[in-house]
């Protein structure tokens, strides 16, 4: 059974991401954790120094959060009513990223699914700050769903990689889990600048083949292009439904997304984006 975290601020953007998750995993037995974080609107010195309960602010905001969560849960059940799906709600007096980290670590979350639109709604901003900080700080596979994206089965996945990662199960299983639900082909895209692969890169590429040997896969090698251009150009020629990257420090992922402009990149992503941490949080196991 998968456990999937759905952060929500009750916006249309978050509802769109929630519906994507429910459709993506419609044939899988899942528990969805619907999460809303809240802090009282009034934050002053007395509030910080004295017990917040004295003012009743936290209780009032919590009740509002819980009511909206219950309404969203009812909306999910009415829209999908999937017997394979269980929905839990969680209202937390916290800011979003620390709470996501805590839930991921304490509840063995398999995926976080969230919307990408920032508070400004500016078209030139690809990811909102919450999404970017989630990529950077949460050790769990994250699916970021573009605002307004209409669900498409992920029949074709694009996986850009520099082969500088010693691929392990925790890198590839989140991809294989999704591929197992659909008749999916994965396109593995490598961009180089005229240099041949090193021995380590060749070994890593061979390892990828072992992971995907029972699946439909293709390797693509492009030279002398920026990674962002290569991704954009590939999407123009192929009907890609999901982009996947491993967030490996010192890799082109970090250079592409976290250097200088942090949440603005040179292409407009119009498909869901699965980000897999290089070093995920280690789940606990029940031993007898």
Automatic annotation (TrEMBL):
Annotated UspA domain residues: 1-146
Pfam families the UniProt entry points to: Usp
PANTHER family for this protein: STRESS RESPONSE PROTEIN NHAX, UNIVERSAL STRESS PROTEIN UP12
Record family assignment: Belongs to the universal stress protein A family.
This protein's name: Universal stress protein
Organism field: Gelatiniphilus marinus
Lineage, highest ranks first: Bacteria, Pseudomonadati, Bacteroidota, Flavobacteriia, Flavobacteriales
